[in-house]
Amino acid sequence: MEHNEENEKSKFQLIFPFLLLLIAVVAVSFSAIIVVELNVTYGVKYEVTAMYRTLFAGIGALLLSFRKKKINWIIQKSTLRKTHWYVLAGLLLAIHFASWFVSLGFTSIAISTTLVDTVPIFLAVFGYIFFKEKINYFGMIGIGLAVMGGVLLAFSSSNGSTDQFNSLLGVVLSLIGALTITFYFLIGKKVLQNAPLWPYFAFVNLSSAFFLFIYCLIYNKFENFELFVFPLIVFVLFILSAVGPSLIGHATYNYSLKKLPAFVVGVAILGEPIGATILAMFFSNQFPAPLTILYAGIILTGVIITSFSPKIKKYILKRKEKEKLLDPRDV
């Protein structure tokens, strides 16, 4: 009886990280929907939404740090010596949210979320450039497919309300969001090997909120917009965007990086554009054009092939070795 219970427990422990990833994907899929709703319905600037999201996410993570009794990590000497890494992660997160949220004003949710989630492609490319990590034949095919899909998507019409220049600007901003979140995840993977999740997440998000606050203050000098006074429903949506996509979504991604290989987490992230596109049809009345679906599908296929390229190569080599052993001509 005890043996069966131990087996069930071990099975659950194996499945649990993947279950968390599924919950994270659903939570993060609501991110773009909330951002667009705040801008279209309540006139909230995208950068302001990014500021409040990181602020409330940081506060939430700080409260969880106290609850878990991990808050002392922030003032430890070993932590203070690496403060520059946490601040840099906060800056990257600020640029990610600002560029991606603004891109939603220039292109559709389907296009923006697809491009911002091309993280595995950037991981493969930068792994080759900086760490001399080899990209095999399948990886190159995957990168080629993703780039081809990206180019086709960039030059296709995103929707009837934006011109070609705006569409391209939205694509560029989405890719900047992907680039910055790639480095953010790389820092997170390095730091979280020896750091508790919630204090780190609090530090990074509050740093991000600070950078976005400074940016909004400067931007407000040129274009006057509201920073502090909003209806209660707006603050409720700010908090929801922090609790759902950030505290449940992004924090779970960071946690998963401790338990699962980076490429598995990267592939799971690709569920976001699919979820966001489906939600956009219901909440924002955005129905992607057939070509958008096709090109986005090409990108996602390329990203999946790139992510699994080491596994594909190993599988083919094993098959070849088996076939060689079973070949009667070798007997």
Describe this structure as you would to a colleague:
This protein has one domain (29-330). By secondary structure, the protein is mostly helical. Residues 158-162 have low confidence and may be disordered. The longest helix has 37 residues, at 290-326. The chain is 80% helix and 0% strand. The protein is globular.
The description of the largest β-sheet is:
none
What's the Cα radius of gyration? 21 Å
- Determine the number of helices (DSSP H or I, runs of at least 4 residues): 14
Give the helix/strand class. Answer: mainly alpha
Secondary structure layout plus pairing:
Elements: H1 2-29, H2 31-42, H3 46-67, H4 77-80, H5 83-103, H6 109-116, H7 119-131, H8 137-154, H9 164-191, H10 197-222, H11 232-259, H12 262-269, H13 271-283, H14 290-326
